[in-house]
Amino acid sequence: MAGMLEFVVRVVGVIVAFLVAPLVVGQAEHKVMAHMQSRLGPMYAGGFHGWAQLVADGVKFVQKESVVPAAADRRVFEWAPFVAILPYMAALAAIPIAPGIVGADLESGLFFVLAVMSVGVLGSLMAGWASGNKYSLLGGLRVAAQLMSYELPFVLSAASVAVAAGSLSLTGIANAWNPWWLLWQLPGLVVFFIAGLAELQRPPFDMPVADSEVIFGPYTEYTGLRFALFLLAEYAGIVILSALTAVLFLGGWSGPGPDSIGWIWTILKTAVVAFVVIWVRVSFPRMRADQLQKLAWQVLVPVALAQLALTGIGVIAF
C-alpha cells in the first residue's frame, strides 16, 4: 500500500511540474523579452504585470477550431503535437531535483533522457511531412538537417560528464560532481547548451520555423489546441534542457547550506539557465543554413570529441 501511494505521489508530482514549469518559463520569456526590448507587452490579464496572459492565451487556443487541411495525412497530422510534447514529460520524470526527489531514479537516466528528447523532435518532422504544405515540408527538412547535425555534439558532450562521473545515473552524476568540473567540463557545457538550443529549434537556430522564409515551418497548418501543444512542447523542452544542464554541469543540488535545501539550488540553477536561453533569443539573429552546418561539424563536434578525450585522460590520470 505504501509503495502504491509513493508511486501515485511521484506521478502526480511529475504531472504538476510538467504543467506548471513550462508556463512559468513561457511567462518569463514574455516579460524578459519585453524588458530587454523596452516594450511593455500585455499588462492587464490577472493584474500584476499581466501574469495571467499566458493562461488567457491558452483559453483562446482552446476556443479556436482545429482545422485539418484537405491534403494532409490526417492521422499523422493529428498525432504530431502529442509526439512532440509527451517525450518531454517522460524526460522530466527521470531528472532528479534532489536525492530522493525524482519521478524515476533510473540507472541509465542520462541515456533515457537523451533518447526521449530525440523522439520529441520527430513530432516536428511528422508535422512538416503530414501537412501537405510546401512550406511545412521545407521546415520539416530543415528540422531533419538540424537533428542530424546537432545530435552528435549534444550526446558527446553529455557522455563526457558520464565518463567523468563513472555513471549513467543522473543522481550518480550529480553526487560525483565537484566544483573544479566547472573548468574541466566547461567546453562540454558550452557545446551541450548550444546543441540543445539547436535541438529545440530556438533562436538563433530557428531556421525550421523562420516566419520570413517558410511562414512558420512545420507548424504553419496548425491551429487551436494542436498549435498550443507545439508551443507548450517548446517551453517544456527549455525546462528539460535547463534542468539537465544544471544536473550534469552545475552540480544540481550542490550548494551552500544543508542538504535539505538542495532542491532550491537545483531550481535556481535551472532558472538561471532558462534565463540564458531567453537572453540568447533576444541577442542573436537567425543563422543561415551554411552557418548552422559549419558551426555543428567544424566547431562543436571537434570540441566535443576533444572534451571527451580530455575527460578520458583526466579519469585515467587522476
TrEMBL record:
Transmembrane segments: 7-26, 79-98, 110-131, 152-174, 180-198, 227-250, 262-284, 296-317
Enzyme Commission code: 7.1.1.-
Cleaved signal peptide residues: none
One Gene Ontology CC term in the entry: plasma membrane
Presence of the UniProt keyword Amino-acid biosynthesis in the record: no
Membrane topology, record value: Multi-pass membrane protein
Compartments in which it is found: Cell membrane; Membrane
Source organism superkingdom: Bacteria
Gene Ontology BP term (one): aerobic respiration
Keywords noted in UniProt: Cell membrane, Membrane, NAD, Quinone, Translocase, Transmembrane, Transmembrane helix, Ubiquinone
Single GO molecular function: NADH dehydrogenase activity
Catalytic reaction equation(s): a quinone + NADH + 5 H(+)(in) = a quinol + NAD(+) + 4 H(+)(out)
Keyword hit for Membrane: yes
Family: Belongs to the complex I subunit 1 family.
Job description of the protein: NDH-1 shuttles electrons from NADH, via FMN and iron-sulfur (Fe-S) centers, to quinones in the respiratory chain. The immediate electron acceptor for the enzyme in this species is believed to be ubiquinone. Couples the redox reaction to proton translocation (for every two electrons transferred, four hydrogen ions are translocated across the cytoplasmic membrane), and thus conserves the redox energy in a proton gradient. This subunit may bind ubiquinone.
PANTHER family in UniProt: NADH DEHYDROGENASE SUBUNIT 1, NADH-UBIQUINONE OXIDOREDUCTASE CHAIN 1
UniProt subunit comment: NDH-1 is composed of 14 different subunits. Subunits NuoA, H, J, K, L, M, N constitute the membrane sector of the complex.
The protein's name in its UniProt record: NADH-quinone oxidoreductase subunit H
